[in-house]
Amino acid sequence: MIFVYYFFAAILIWLSYKAFSGGIEYARFIREHLAVPVAKEQPFATIFAPCRGVDPGFVKNLEQLFSQDHHEYEIIFVVDDENDEAVGPINAAIANFANERVSAKLLIAPKAEGCSQKIANLLHAIPEADERSSVFAFVDSDARTTSAWLSSLTAAALDANVGAATAYRWLISERPRLGSAFASVWNASVASALGRNTRTNFCWGGSMAISRENFERLDIRSHWQGALSDDFAVTRAVHKAGLAIEFVPRAMCASFEDRSLIDMLEFTTRQMKITRVYSPSLWVMSMIGSAIFCGVLIASIFIAAASAPFSIQFDFAAGVFIVVAGLTVGKAVIRLNAVRLVLADHDPKLRRQYLSQIVLAFLTPGVFLVNSLAALVSRRINWRGTVYELKSPSETVIIREKR
Question: What's the CATH architecture for 36-261?
Fold first, then answer.
């Protein structure tokens, strides 16, 4: 039995080393990206902002969308209910900040049928884009963009070799809360999966752009039909066409939250259920990797405790734990240092995350394992008050709508 432990311990050390190396490469890529000035060409662009409800910091998020350093653009907000809580703040933002350089409007989309409400909102809004628009940018209502967000995504999306440009979020809690801290560490491990390799990158719909030409050529609307996840559908379409997905660190967004542990589990499990449907190989890899991490570290503790001090088994088990711990801590610190360069406006809050990012990095694989197992037994999710059943990447059933 001990040889089985040795085998999986060796695998975990190798996986931990690969993850640590990936963290170094992630930080290097971000530094290189930030050292390159944003392209000065800034054609007219359209921002699509589907909303439902009022997220933490929503009013400030809206204000930031009107504060882009892009030359000229429009913002199309879209909700599915004229009585939605978001309508008032959106109308106020349009009244206060729209001008000759930045135009904006609010649309009311019909209720979704056979797809997520977010996709129904986007499908309703796309035809309303200004005919001058060369780039379609997409943003989530809980994303706090930087002033360079739109220009950075636009420059990348217009590259002839790029099918879509994307960034990702970094979760920040306004007050110390275990659920929020867990969600931030969980999310951070996904964020650092993006990088230099444009063939393995994926799109995140909360900070994503695609040229209008590619949007039409790849027929994104047809890929959205029947789908729940807008970003996974775009990812599949771009990869199928053999085009690149460019990660744009300068377009990363802060997302403010306040989650309980139950909320955190619901959020992370929902992401993994979506992953199981749209990228089953990634779901399997996540389940296997988290199981190995948890199993080997728990076994290392028990073996070390049951062995004579400084015996071969004790030294090996302790050594495995120390090596994996060192690599895990190292990646967490490197990753957070890199994100601080991008989200400098939020640096005081990010500096307070070091302890949680380090400590919870050891426990988050357990959350991934729970998420993966939950996705094994159910494809039903609750997203923004609506319950969906994910039948396949192109078939979504609405079980219960928000009232």
Answer: Alpha-Beta Complex (3.90)
